[in-house]
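Q: Given only this backbone (396 positions), what sequence would you predict?
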């Protein structure tokens, strides 16, 4: 049985990045760039003014001097004639610097009257000019492959006229819940039945990670139903099952996956909760079998499935931030397994403080609603005291 760290390493070493597709620029937000993007031209494309003001020869305007206003240049226009010595051209932000001018004086540092502009400050060559190629040079790699595309990256791409962007494709994740006791949301609850919340919860987690869920519904506790559903799920990039991998008389998932040629990497992990978590591969496709308990299912998705999906979609940072935090209260724990403790997180004087988000029994789903992080407590540790430092994955 692998440890927590060993299991995650096995998973991340096993999955590969998906191929590339080109998508419309707004559809690329949050996606990962699949190819380097080089600048097709300089940025700025020409010398231009950073301010509304007057373009002039710096040598012509000592502080307190005045110049004749010889023209007006709005943004979107340009001049071909050289600025004559002893004159200034009124210019608007972004307009190309007219030939001959080597500085711009902002409006607030001038006063215009009767066709003359009075300069209130000393002027140096280059003042308030954004020079051609000062930001980006032609051919420069502005966005390397592997970059996650945020609004700032979209701005850069749009500035170079790129409307269709090469990104790693989204992962399609088939999701299957198993059990005769399950009914779909909206169906009548009869004695002994429970609502299949796991499928929707896992689908929401897939969407949040950037993937596309493929809903397979519910497989009943018999081999025929499982085989049909699992075979369908293996057409996706990833298959996730929920429940059916423990040691019960009706837990057939493991056996049917083996019949479908899924090679099992491990069946259990030395963790609590989530010990009956399995991982395998068929033709390179990852197959995750998660516990049926809703809390365990979501926690194991967070710690094992989410990083794998992110890697498949090209992300370089696949793990949540891990911080050191101080316990505000003691925590109970038996030595033997890594424990995932749902905790509420707050900050005080630059330090993270955490306390239990509530009852840690995996039957209490509300505790997940109150949790901002998951404290990862080493296997060898027993009870912890208030004031001790622990590692916490921030999930919110």
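A: Predicted residues:
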């Amino acid at each position: 049985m692998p440890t927590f760290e060993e299991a995650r390493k096995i998973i991340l070493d096993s999955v590969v990045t998906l191929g590339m597709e080109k998508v419309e620029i707004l559809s690329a937000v949050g996606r990962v760039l699949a190819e380097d993007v080089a600048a097709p031209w300089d940025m700025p494309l020409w010398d231009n003014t950073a301010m509304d003001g007057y373009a002039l020869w710096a040598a012509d305007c000592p502080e307190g001097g005045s110049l004749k206003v010889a023209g007006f240049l709005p943004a979107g226009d340009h001049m071909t004639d050289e600025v004559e010595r002893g004159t200034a051209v009124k210019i608007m932000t972004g307009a190309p610097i007219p030939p001959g001018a080597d500085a711009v004086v902002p409006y607030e540092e001038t006063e215009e009257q009767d066709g003359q502009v009075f300069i209130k400050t000393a002027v140096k060559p280059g003042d308030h000019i954004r020079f051609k190629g000062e930001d980006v040079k032609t051919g420069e790699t502005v966005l390397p492959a592997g970059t996650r595309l945020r609004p700032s990256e979209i701005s850069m791409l749009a500035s170079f006229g790129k409307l269709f962007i090469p990104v790693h494709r989204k992962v399609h994740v088939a999701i299957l819940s198993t059990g005769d006791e399950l009914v779909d949301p909206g169906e009548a609850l009869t004695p002994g039945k429970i609502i299949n919340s796991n499928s929707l919860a896992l689908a929401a987690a897939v969407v949040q990670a950037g993937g596309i869920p493929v809903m397979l519904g519910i497989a009943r506790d018999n081999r025929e139903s499982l085989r049909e559903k699992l075979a369908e799920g293996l057409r996706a990039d990833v298959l996730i099952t929920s429940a059916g991998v423990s040691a019960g008389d009706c837990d057939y998932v493991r056996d049917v996956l083996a019949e479908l040629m899924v090679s099992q990497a491990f069946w259990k992990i030395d963790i609590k909760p989530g010990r009956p978590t399995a991982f395998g591969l068929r033709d390179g496709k990852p197959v995750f079998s998660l516990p049926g308990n809703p809390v365990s299912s979501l926690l194991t998705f967070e710690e094992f499935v989410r990083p794998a999906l992110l890697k498949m979609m090209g992300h370089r940072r696949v793990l949540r931030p891990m911080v050191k935090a101080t316990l505000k209260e003691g925590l109970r724990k038996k030595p033997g397994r890594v424990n995932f403790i749902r905790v509420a997180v707050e900050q005080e004087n630059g330090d993270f403080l955490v306390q239990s988000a509530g009852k840690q029994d995996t039957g209490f789903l509300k505790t997940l609603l109150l949790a901002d992080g998951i404290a990862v407590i080493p296997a060898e540790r027993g009870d912890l005291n208030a004031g001790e430092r622990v590692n916490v994955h921030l999930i919110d």
